[in-house]
Amino acid sequence: MSSISLLNVFDSISFSWKDFHSSKVLIPSSLFEYHTKWMKVALTASSILCTIYLLHSHASYNDNIPTVNRRFALEPRIFVRLRWAFGSVKILDDAYEKYHDRAYRLARGDADIIVLPSRFINELNRLPQHFISSRKSHSKSLTGYLNGMDVVQTTNHHVKMLLSRPASQRIQSTITELFPRDTDSWNAVEPVNKIVHCISQAITLSTFGPPICDNPKLPILVWLLPYKWRLEQSWKNLEDFVVPEVESRKADPNRVKEPNLISWMLAEAKTDGETDGYMLTRLVGSVIAGGTYSSAAFVTGVIADLIAHPHFLDEIREEIRQKNDEVQGNWDQSAFNNLDKLDSAMKETSRLAPGSLLVYSRVMENDCTLSNGLELKKGQLITTSGHSASMDPNVFPNPEEYDALRAYNQDFERHRAQPFRSVEGEDHRWGAGRWACPGRYIASIVSKIILVKLLDEYDFEFVGGKRPKTSVMHEFVFIDPATKIMMRRKKQNSGIMY
Ligand code: HEM
């Protein structure tokens, strides 16, 4: 019945509840049914409204922290998630412009996470160790429940043991094997995939040591997702290597003294769980998977940025040539550490294309009140926007512009004191504090070993004149592994050999 005919019905009958109760009015049965029906509708509507209100107040927060990327409290997560997946840079830029030095709550779709201004990092670093957990947060962001990485929640054994063991000769022979030798023609090369192999040579050496690191069947665990079944198979293959190896090392005390991650982990284990072969498989697998692609994408990014800015490429090549002459071809750790211009270019690429837009992601393990009165509750996820910090014009003038020698020219003394591998950078490229990236020494030296060799030995061009695209999905920044660049081996190069 329409609302007009409804009004007509009421007009035609003089009705009062009093009369109704004293039964002086005889209501036609059709009208009574009609009323009952509308009362039911009203009751249903009010219970729906009450439920919405209760859900809404449950979903909203009462803590004065503004929420970003959720349009209304009950917005379905899928919309929140999609906006974050494809528009994270804009979301963070808008939030930084609006809130700058204030904390805000970022709706990511999987969870709501408090984004703190970077200035709180020092304060959080001073909290007792058991107050915040980085591993719970890594496990969550890397969907640990899907890929087996959630083992990192139960131990930090691998992080404590991760030390730098440069493996320049292995990298060199992999470069020789995988990159074109031809000096006459250009070849389209997939740099990410090839560099993954070079880096994995170094990482498997430091993780397993010989002879297992040379076994061609050792799986390269690079991709965490999306093919769970493929990953499961890779884990299984890795277990077949690691478990018997662990048992044989446990049986021979001399083998535990070998200089590689597995032996160090066995030697330093405090509990039985920490010597368990299956547990160790997951830990070393997490290290390999986490460090390999990030470093390969980074090295490719440095090369791409330099191809796009040839005057910087020339200057850095000159620095490499001079260093090679100075050390007379003897590339030791200190030679790599003294490439100040290359180091500055590495900082610039990682500032503009970090592995993740969010850094210092942690889970609060205790309630805590920050110096500005902000209350963080146990279980709360927190993070900082490394992206916003590295694009702050007060810290990095003309932040959008690529300037390979920015750090080198801005403050040379500081650049030397806080090189690329240092954790002191303003852009927090390695995170910060106790749980900053433990692989940064490896990542830094391995990247330099590869860059020195490739930049000196090859000419580069973009396919179709276009720089390979850096993509962002959620907070993760990456280069498509199928990306190609043109490479031609130079007829004249310094002939650097490690
Ligand atoms: C350019 C390459 C790399 C970048 C940009 C990078 C960056 C990061 C960042 C930002 C974090 C989080 C730190 C924090 O939240 O404070 C991290 C954690 C970690 N990284 Fe790296 N990383 C790289 C290479 C590597 C390599 C080569 C390895 C291993 C060989 C590695 C192993 C790890 C591990 C195990 C963690 C977790 C530490 C923890 O327990 O909290 N990373 N990395």
From TrEMBL:
Its cofactor is heme. GO terms for molecular function: heme binding; iron ion binding; monooxygenase activity; oxidoreductase activity, acting on paired donors, with incorporation or reduction of molecular oxygen. Heme binds at residue 437. The keyword Metal-binding applies. Gene3D superfamilies: Cytochrome P450. SUPFAM superfamilies: Cytochrome P450. Pfam families: p450 (PF00067). The keyword Metal-binding applies. Keywords: Heme, Iron, Metal-binding, Oxidoreductase. InterPro entries: Cyt_P450, Cyt_P450_E_grp-IV, Cyt_P450_sf. Belongs to the cytochrome P450 family. PANTHER family: CYTOCHROME P450 (PTHR46206), P450, PUTATIVE (EUROFUNG)-RELATED (PTHR46206:SF4). This is Cytochrome P450. It comes from Zopfia rhizophila CBS 207.26.
